[in-house]
Amino acid sequence: MSHPRVDLIAGEARTAIAAARGASELEQARVRYLGRQGALTLLLRSLGTLAAGERPRVGAAANEAKRELEALLEARLAEARARERREARGRQRLDLTLPGRRPPRGSLHPLTLVRDRIVEIFAGLGFSVAEGQEIESDYNNFEALNIPRDHPARDMQDTFYFSEDTLLRTHTSPVQVRVMKAQPPPVRIIVPGRTYRRDVADATHSPVFHQVEGLAVDRNISMGDLKGTLALFAREMFGPGSSIRFRPSFFPFTEPSAEFDVGCFLCHGGGCRFCKQSGWLEIGGSGMVHPQVLKNVGYDPEEVTGWAFGMGIERIALLRYGIDDIRLLLENDLRFLGQFA
Amino acid sequence: MKILYGWVRELVDVTLTPEQAAERLIGAGTEVASVTRLAPAGLRGVVVGEIRAIERDLGESHGHRLLLCRVSTGREELSVVSGAPNTRVGVRAAFAPPGASLPGGRAIGMATIRGAPSQGMLCSERELGLGEEHESGLFELEPDARLGADLVAHLGLEDSVLEIEITPNRPDCLSILGIARELSALTGAPLREPAVALKESNEAAADLARARIDAPDLCARFTARVITNVTVGPSPAWLAVRLRAVGLRPISNVVDVTNYVLWELGHPLHAFDRDTVADHAIVVRRAARGERFTTLDGQERTLTEAMLVIADPRRAIGLAGVMGGANTEVGPRTTRVLLEAAWFDPACIRRTSRALGLRTDAAYRFERGADVEALPVAGARAAQLIADLAGGSVARGLIDVYPAPRPRRRVSLRMSRVRRVLGIAPRVAEAARILGGLGLPVTERGEELEVEVPGFRRDLVIEDDLVEEVIRVWGYDRIPSTVPGGVTGVVSQPRTLRQEAALRQALAGAGLSEIVATSFTDPVTDEALAGDGPLEPLPLLNPLSEDASLMRRHPLAGVLAAIATNARRQQPDVRIFEIGKTYGQHQADIVEPRWLAVAVTGARGPAAWYRAPEAADAYDAKGLAEHALAALGVTATEVATPEPAAAFEPDLHGVLVTPDGRGVVEFGEVSATVRERFGIDAPVFAALVGLDALLDHEPAPSRHQPLPRYPAVARDLAFLIGAGQPVTAAEIESALRAEAGPLLRDLTLFDVYRFPDGRRSLAWRLTFQAEDRTLTDDEVNTIQARVAERATAGFSIALRSR
Ligand SMILES: [Zn+2]
């Protein structure tokens, strides 16, 4: 559909658009033909003055031309803007190899990372977190856990004392006693915390260290459940192929007692210096809560059974990150602290 | 404890190699730290030789006369040069023929010495790797040693030593017999207890000695044997070799036998020279307070009433269960031996041994619990051995004082309990077999076993102890892997942990490194930091060292130590935080409050092309503290002047206060005196947040505010403050806020400038906005003028023209 009057204006407009250099000349062309006083706009506005028979033809042709010109202008305008941006960039080119503006990067301590991971895994298994105090009574740290005074089992944990009855806890186990005394069974807790033993510091010993202790007490809970729980933990913590092993041991507050080892994830059982060529890494101690301990907190050992385990956070951090000296952990050299995620 | 494997195999018929035996023992709970061959590594081909003739003197060399000898190995005769002082015809000694090798891989060949051919080498103890002796010359052997016999075999060195480490509950494993019993239970091989074929004389022991227990609570049983007509002398080689192999020094036949039986049966014995015991009468009694007594090692010791002594009517003659006395020691002139085998209270022995610092093999066993039933056997075994080795005869009868014989404990084991505790159980017959194999008499009653506990297993007290015995032997590998059923409720985390997690996330996100520091400190640093604080110090009774002798009382101790460490290691720019505790006595209580400590020093951030280098200052500490508080939902913007504290510079020390008036953060510049104590040269800025107080300050849940619907209008106001005018930014700001009224949406101090002459310029941006309409310029102009007037007039400061 066309009309000579419309064709005339549209033709002029196309020429002007084609000739325009840059965005501002395109804008001028738009104003001249499509603006409020533009030629095509005026024509559309004057339709009423035309003969009734001509109006539809001219109107249709003019509207069609308007759409065509608008599309054309938009396309040329986009082209022109892109060209102008290119030219502007060319004038002040950025060196994209300069370092970016980075926000400062902080770090969490490896002991925090390991502890949080352990707590997270056990939270997924239904364990709530409990905490206790580091300065403890001799009763909670030893006697309630079936370790009387003048018993050789005390040699297993060299202890810092403040007085005859007050000491730095040698394990997180006193929290077991506090929690069980405070609530009836069932219990399922995980206890992370700082512990102390009077060991001279060397590559593998630190008088200040951290443990995580787990405790489950319920009507029907067995050493098999302990093994299964630790196996799940090992797979989450050390990788899906991890296996665990129990070895008989002795802790006065568990009976039976077991050391638990995890298949060495560094050499996959082939033997390396971390596992002393055995293929197994010693991770912690565990066992069924001794009936006497249950009695000490007012539980009935014929009603409920329970198990407990404990492991050193440092030990796991050393293995996980391949750190060969425990003393690095409390030294806080920034070059060390920045290595863990 | 060192255990000779060949000795074990005399008591149990196992075919395992030493390594295999060690593995089985470890699998059943007895730790074996090492397995070592007795023979020195590399010692091969050395035989028993005899010097048949000395053929020629080859002259002196390094003070030794070199002799050319003819040495026989029984099969051949060889020419050998020897420089040893004990070279003489007829002596049998260790001889390394050509082809033999010595420890360290030294191969023996043919040599020519002073023109004479030497076919091999006569060796000293040191050259054989068997000891340190060298100057005395050849390692001499008994005259009847078989010529040509392999030296390693001849000396009984074809054996291995297992280094055993027991857990405190298993003193029975501190003996050859105990280990043999374990191996018997684990393999099913029969146990052969050492045979005692006692030949008693007609003389009655009761006529030769008497005994009485005056402290039956500390000594349950005292037995003695008397052996007469002994000749004290050196032990035979086989005994000396065994003792040396397990790390004991041979002394004399009588003493060595007591040690031998101690190792073999696990029971400590003591031999007295019977004729030095006054009235030949033994009294077991408590020591008198202050009683002095000289032990076998020649030390005089002062005793207490808590200690037990073996005495005669006149004086103490032994420190019971720990060490004998010098006054009754068996010596070369001893002819009659009184041999003690007794049972002492473990706690008493442990206290005595620790109090005197006297840790002996005997005390180690008694404090873990000896076998009260084994005394007659141990005494008989040792008495007969003494009679055999030192001549003499065993007097008839056992002196046995046992006021209250201890019955054997009976413990029953339900198979249902085994299954309940372990999640699995063997058949009852298997359980019975296992317990029987451990030397425990068992009676089967359907699904229940009744076990009689002999004296050597006093650790077995309750049913679950037997559960452990069963599974220990049956195998921990058989315990299934199951997962506990049941739900115990919602998993919860203490608020402390959630609070700490929020802080860690915020501060690590802000570019700080978390540190973990020791709880210990030294008294001088502690006093410098916390001497004026609220906590009394908590010193350790038994610190490892003076610089870790008490608990830290101040939360800056950790971060300052870390800054010092990094500064020494060329890392002057440090931004760190610690979430930790301090410890101290507060009135009657011991407290361990939790803290957040933030510290920065050096440059604010790493050098970068897009940022000018800037040194950190007190506002970093303040801003980080505010950031941390924001993570906890706590607002504290007001700054108050704190009580002076030694840890901070007096003029650069502030407290952030919450709207309800509680000081929650202390911040500022760390006092130069304190940081210099740590060896830090550069200024350190720090903030401390007491975390416990913020726990009962759980913020109200956030409430949504509708977004503004009308545009905001911003106006800037800058003021000029004369040098020396004390007015603070906070004072001006609160005046601005009060005067601006409810239309003020936001107030930001965006520029601070200090002129060289001391005048200050502070500029604020005030943002106005109404909830119900668009503000007009006139409206805002009026407020702005009022606000400016209030500030300039109120503080006598000038409005800066823009
Ligand atoms: Zn490995």
What does this structure look like?
- The complex is a heterodimer of chains A (341) and B (802).
- The longest helix of chain A is centred in the N-terminal third of the chain and has 37 residues, at 55-91.
- In chain A, 41% of the residues lie in helices and 19% in strands.
- Chain A has twelve helices and nine strands.
- Chain A has helices at 4-19, 22-34, 39-45, 55-91, 110-124, 138-141, 174-182, 223-238, 291-296, 313-321, 328-331, 334-337, and strands at 128-129, 135-137, 166-168, 187-196, 208-218, 244-251, 254-263, 280-289, 305-312.
- Chain A is an alpha+beta fold and 341 residues long.
- Chain A folds into two domains: 4-92; 110-340, Bira Bifunctional Protein, Domain 2 (BirA Bifunctional Protein, domain 2, 2-Layer Sandwich).
- In chain A, strands 1-4-5-9-8-7-6 form a seven-stranded mixed beta sheet, with helices on both faces. A two-stranded antiparallel sheet of chain A has the order 2-3.
- Chain B contains 21 helices and 43 strands.
- In chain B, the strands form twelve sheets. Chain B has a seven-stranded mixed beta sheet, with helices on both faces. In chain B, strands 13, 15, 16, 23, 24 and 25 form a six-stranded mixed beta sheet that branches. A five-stranded antiparallel beta sheet of chain B has the order 5-4-3-6-11.
- The mean pLDDT of chain B is 92.
- Chains A and B meet through helix 5, strand 1, strand 4, strand 5 and helix 8 of A and helix 8, helix 11, helix 13, helix 14 and strand 29 of B.
- Residues 264, 266-267, 271-272, 274-275, 279 of chain A line the site of zinc ion.
Helix content of chain B: 25-40%
- In terms of DSSP E residues, the strand content of chain A is 15-25%
Q: Helix/strand-derived class of chain A?
A: alpha+beta
Classified in CATH, the superfamily of the largest domain in chain A is Bira Bifunctional Protein, Domain 2
Structural class given helices, strands, pairing of chain B? Answer: alpha+beta
Q: In angstroms, what separates the terminal alpha carbons of chain B?
A: 90 Å
